[in-house]
Amino acid sequence: MAEPAHISIRDLAARLGLGRTAVSMALRNHPHISEKTRQRVQAEAERLGYRPNALVTALMAQIRTRRVKRSGETIAFFTAYKTRDDWSKANLVDGTLQGARERAEHLGFRVEPWWLGYRGGESPRIARILRARAVRGAIIGPMPLDLETLGFDWNSLFAIAIGYSFAQQPLDRVSHNHFNIIRLCYDNLYRLGHRRIGLAITKESDDRVQHLWLGGFCTSQQVLGGAALPPLWFDHWDDHPDSKKQFLKWYRLNKPDAVLGIGPDNPLRWMREAGVSVPGKTSYANIDLDRRKKGEVAGALQNVRAAGAVAVDLVVAGINRNEYGIPETPRNLLLDATWSDGATVARRG
């Protein structure tokens, strides 16, 4: 018997002895359908050359979105800082969560922060709560590098990670384009006449982005030129005496005319405390500038709110397609930054 020219879900259901709803859900990898049945349906669909109707798919997505808008479905936003509210002190996390909440409200969802305990120690308990509440979407915020193994059933979630710090599962990600961002900073300093540009950041900050800060800096030195000053890694985010000594030793040895830093601008403070005129003698720029310091300090403005909004868009789209679990080919959506002039940079030459 000749196969039909166009195979529909009705045809597949009849051949497999299943209901049309079950076949449709199996084709979308819905977790309520057993893996064995999903594999059986998908194998038969592949054999028969089944292809979804694009117009029907778009219509069903609209219908599902309208249903979700009425229900106000929750998307969980995971944090694992030392305390439940520590995320509010971190510009990156606070801004990302704000952007996620604004976008979710526009789409009829809501984003709720969920503290997984310090280093994720409470994740098994949180997983049970979210399962009981039928939460299907999650955004994994920046995580500690020594995170405990999270106790989630990933096959029941559509999850997006922010950045690279969560590495336990190969999820889709929304990341800032760290490699290009530091090149943007180097390029602007070079354009303003600086030829001895140095990098002074914590080792952890580079570890958290898979060494893209270091990679972008070294590439900029090779491509744009200038003195090949060795980058400095120091060990503490806070104003630690050992880090200050380490920085000043590096500064006096290498004599940079501009320094790229990150976080709370400790190198800027240390230079001024040592009597260095900034920007008179040495310019300073932050590769992840806090927007509250715009104009006061020069550097790259990462659009943290956009990261949250894009993450919500991806989660909502995944929920509407009933896609859950670990993606076969993880995607990484990169967001660029913008350069912001500030009082800590002066033109040279």
Q: Could you characterize the architecture of this molecule?
A:
The mean pLDDT is 89. The protein has twelve helices and twelve strands. The strands form two sheets. The protein has a six-stranded parallel beta sheet, with helices on both faces. The longest helix has 18 residues, at 54-71. Helix 1 crosses helix 2 and helix 2 crosses helix 3. It is an alpha/beta fold and 349 residues long. It has three domains: 9-52, 434 Repressor (Amino-terminal Domain) (Orthogonal Bundle), CATH 1.10.260; 71-176 and 306-335, Rossmann fold; 178-303, Rossmann fold (3-Layer(aba) Sandwich).
Task: Give the arrangement of secondary structure elements.
Elements lengths: L8 H8 L3 H8 L7 H14 L5 H18 L2 E6 L11 H17 L2 E6 L7 H10 L4 E4 L17 E5 L9 E5 L1 H14 L5 E6 H5 L4 H13 L7 E3 L6 H14 L3 E4 L4 H8 L9 E4 L11 E4 L2 H17 L11 E4 L2 E3 L9
Parallel strand pairs: 1-2, 1-3, 3-4, 4-5, 5-11, 6-7, 6-8, 8-9, 9-10
Antiparallel strand pairs: 10-12
Distance between the termini: 83 Å
Number of domains: 3
What characteristic shape results from the CA principal axes? elongated
Query: CATH superfamily assignment of the largest domain?
Result: Response regulator
Q: At the first level of CATH, what is the class of the largest domain?
A: Alpha Beta
The chain-level mean pLDDT equals 89
User: Biggest sheet, strands in spatial order?
Assistant: 2-1-3-4-5-11
- CATH architectural arrangement of the largest domain: 3-Layer(aba) Sandwich
The biggest sheet, with number of strands, parallel, antiparallel or mixed sense and barrel status, is: 6 strands, parallel
The amount of beta strand, in percent, is: 15-25%
- Uncertain ranges: none
Going by helix content, strand content and strand pairing, the class is alpha/beta
- How many β-strand runs? 12
CATH topology of the largest domain: Rossmann fold
* Rg estimate, integer Å: 25 Å
The helix/strand series, from N terminus to C terminus, equals HHHHEHEHEEEHEHHEHEHEEHEE
Fraction in helix: 40-55%
How many helices? The count is 12
